[in-house]
Amino acid sequence: MADKQKKNLPPDAQNYQAFQQQRETKRPLFKNCIKAFLVGGFICFIGQIISTFYIYFFNFTEQTAGNPTVATLIFITMLLTGFGVYDRIGQFAGAGSAVPVTGFGNAVISSAIEHRTEGFVLGVGTNMLKLAGPVIVYGVFSAFVIALIKTILIKWGGL
Amino acid sequence: MIFFWAFVVGGIICVIGQIMFDVFKLSPAHTLSILVVSGAILDGFGLYEPLIDFAGAGVTVPITSFGNSLVHGAMAEAEKHGLVGVVTGMFEVTSAGISAAIIFGFIGALIFKPKG
């Protein structure tokens, strides 16, 4: 809460907030980072195995193998999410399981499964991209701005 | 060797995400949005491709690659069709991630029942 707002509160509430801040459990930053590093690294390592598979057997290059790899990982995520395993990994790993695309897949798939009781159009259809929406919106808009600037620079700036 | 670098670089990106969670107290949605935008910016400066050559899946698996492939698709189409291509080409490369998420999300909703 902002300091300005804090001053307007009655003294009891101020005391309570100080007390709450004191008692708040400190997040173990170092330990969390190690967990995120190991799990995130492991997911990327599996991704690399899948990429290598696509490069050797389906003639993809290092640059283009990312796409089928991502699709395969999201398929695996579907199974893990459906059986409730991904949630447990997520509790342990924090950002380690949220930052790779599997986290994006998990956000889409889990909200689809969660809302199926509300019906397939209004439940699954409307809620599927609820959590993943910001990623798509900001990704698309920033990519648009960047590509626009770059195209203008190349066409008329002689870059 | 690329397996080692995929592990290390992918891990480092996740640690950056964890620091945003814990130190800056950002929500997962904010963190992921920032990572996607930074992926797009890195590709704007042409820095993402060398990273893929260096670390492979270490940079194509984290969500930052979304930003990268969005810019990539837009730029590829812009070379052919000019400014209109920026809009029409956007999803050309990224489509795999988003369509896979939607397709498997729907299949998942058909097969699995919510828990708890």
Automatic annotation (TrEMBL), chain A:
Keywords: Membrane, Transmembrane, Transmembrane helix
Pfam families hit by this protein: SpoVAC_SpoVAEB (PF03862)
Keyword presence, Membrane: yes
Regions that span the bilayer: 36-57, 69-86, 93-113, 133-153
Key word Disulfide bond present: no
NCBIfam families: spore_V_AC
UniProt-recorded name of the protein: Stage V sporulation protein AC
Biological source species: Virgibacillus indicus
TrEMBL record, chain B:
InterPro entries: Spore_V_AE, SpoVA
PANTHER family according to UniProt: STAGE V SPORULATION PROTEIN AC-RELATED, STAGE V SPORULATION PROTEIN AEB
Name this polypeptide is given: Stage V sporulation protein AE
Ranges that cross the membrane: 6-24, 83-112
Keyword check for Aminoacyl-tRNA synthetase: no
UniProt KW keywords: Membrane, Transmembrane, Transmembrane helix
